[in-house]
């Protein structure tokens, strides 16, 4: 993963290339450490719980191009030092859950993991203006090297399948288009985000009802009542 992204000659001065490569290796190790913690929980859920809140886990390190774009938007010089200082989401782990309650369950586990929390942002209760929803937690993750133990920020994004689908499609739909077309499509994308959020809450309610045991007639009546309330 690291080697594929290190095309740096156009983004950083030659003397910074070795330093940047070393730093990205540390960020990669921090991602591995965070993923290991999440995968342990995932395996525990599979064995001990009737319901596993984690659907799947992904990770990434920002490409040099993304690093450059973000530093330029911040209007700061492109350097390894500024990358570390200003970019808290350089290393990212994404946890995709089935239901909204699962998102908050995993968020609480992450926040109580003993790692230093830099910041936590709930974009589910307070969506971004474009409709984006997710729960973000930035933590400082220690990496044990041969002669030091640096700590680097890792952003954990926790979201439902619906939120994840919207975010990936939103990026694809708005990629490299004119400002006029972007404005028109953005309005529809926000509507889609709101519709998917409504579906998320419906699915959450249906799942909760599925845990209530009773006669078939009672179950049908409860489901119909719930669907009517959340429609």
Describe this structure in words.
By secondary structure, the protein is α+β, with helices and mostly antiparallel strands. It has eight helices and five strands. It has helices spanning 2-5, 14-48, 64-73, 80-86, 100-111, 161-173, 179-210, 216-230; strands at residues 54-61, 91-97, 116-122, 135-142, 151-160. It has a five-stranded mixed beta sheet. α6 (161-173) runs antiparallel to α7 and α7 runs antiparallel to α8 (216-230). The longest helix is centred in the N-terminal third of the chain and has 35 residues, at 14-48. The chain is flat.
Write the layout of secondary structure elements.
Blueprint lengths: L1 H4 L8 H35 L5 E8 L2 H10 L6 H7 L4 E7 L2 H12 L4 E7 L12 E8 L8 E10 H13 L5 H32 L5 H15 L1
Parallel strand pairs: 2-5
Antiparallel strand pairs: 1-2, 3-4, 4-5
Helix pairs in contact: 6-7, 7-8
Highlighted features:
8 helices; alpha+beta; 231 residues; 17% strand; disordered N terminus; 5-stranded mixed sheet
Give a short synopsis of this structure.
This protein has 231 residues and is of the alpha+beta class.
Average residue pLDDT = 86
Main sheet summary: 5 strands, mixed
Q: For the terminal residues, how far apart are their CA atoms?
A: 44 Å
Helical element count? Answer: 8
Share of helical residues: 55-70%
Number of strands: 5
